[in-house]
């Protein structure tokens, strides 16, 4: 039952909907501003103005009702209300019908199942950003920034490195590598929160994906432990490659079960067989024999898909393959693409046909060659997994600006983009954080604005920067110094284990620490590279050292507002540079 005061508030809400012609003319800013200014005098029903949207002649929003969040649907005819709302008793005010249900994951899942447009979408080849949500409190300011800037985006994290299986992120220290699932997030919490916050924030178009499902032949012993559910040793487990595949299947299981995942990026770079490009190791006739053995009945199809001697005109560029080139490239990528196909089909069996597939080639030791990109996109199509997005290696590195000449970068990207466009695909640029605006402009020009760019690290670093800016002795500054110290200890461990980057950066910071006036800063190189580790850092008991405090401080008004401005400025700079 809804009591009298709430009913009066709902009546007022409907009067305002009528006054501003919302169901007929749409949700205008003046309507939201009126609600935001609290001019309506709501007492116990308080609609969140940022959540209001109109879809198929129904108004949706989230409202605070006596401290509880409710999902609200306002219609003029009952058939316009989704089933999850019609299961509750309606409240009528003249021609308006109001439904309210608890705003929770289960109800949102039911709503999105009936009205997919109200949840994440498969964005395929639409130009957009891809934003990593390492800390969930980043979502509200990101959503507001995307709405204000009118920018499309996916939300994602890297499977394994950033988020992981629930049993991994909740395990006591020592069972798994410290970097595995370093955000402390599992798929259920990550994707449920993304969907909830996007609905609550009124973001009408966004995507979600599992980023970087990494297939490797050198799986850490920890991943075999995951596969065997902690039973037995690594030596007793399956082969490393199959262990890696099963880990990725379990990630897909947990993520797809949420109902809120619309895409995958698969990286099988470790399976690329570079030896087939070496004529000394693999002479022409040996390559031909091996090609016929591995492709067997498909060999003719492959040579018909990428025709030797044919001139492929791609814009102002031309590609001509010899038969030997096709065979060498085909063997180089054969295992890689076969294993990607397995995960592609597994994901499809879980989510259906409507999803976005990205092929990742960026984590290779060499720049992506045009002929190899052409072959991979062609072969993916032949194998029944057409590529929506492809991430080539264009020379980007994580947490670093692009070091080379921009004219060379632009020309390289222009060729790759033209090849991708031939296959109705779009280039995706990974490691997109920390590049200057000129780099973004160069790649955007080269792609004609048709691209995706992924960023993740920068938003976490901006939060640490926010904490560091508070006065010495403040709770915020003290926490920053604690995570700075923890990161330094972690870098010392990495350096002792042979990490060359850690060694170099440790040496540099230790020199500066010995000088007068040294101050711990968020832009110290070692901190920028390795501070990711602090969020899920744990005591021997399994209790997290920093995560609760990091999240708690983010809810303080001054911290929240400072961080919100930083999130907006970073997003704005990148979006405007990309055009």
Summarize the structure in short:
The protein is built from 22 helices and 18 strands. The protein has 579 residues and is of the alpha/beta class. It has 3 domains: 4-118, no CATH class; 268-449, no CATH class; 459-575, no CATH class.
Topology, element by element:
Layout: H1 4-19, H2 22-25, H3 29-36, E1 45-47, E2 53-55, E3 58-65, E4 68-75, H4 83-86, E5 91-93, E6 96-102, H5 105-114, E7 128-132, H6 139-149, E8 153-158, E9 163-164, H7 166-169, E10 185-186, H8 187-200, E11 207-214, H9 221-227, H10 240-256, E12 263-267, H11 284-295, H12 299-305, E13 311-314, E14 317-320, H13 323-351, E15 356-360, H14 370-382, E16 389-391, H15 406-422, E17 426-429, H16 437-447, E18 451-455, H17 457-468, H18 475-496, H19 500-513, H20 525-530, H21 547-554, H22 557-578
Parallel strand pairs: 7-8, 7-18, 8-11, 9-10, 11-12, 12-15, 15-16, 16-17, 17-18
Antiparallel strand pairs: 1-3, 2-3, 3-4, 4-6, 5-6, 13-14
Helix pairs in contact: 6-22, 9-10, 10-13, 11-13, 13-14, 14-15, 15-16, 16-22, 17-18, 17-22, 18-19
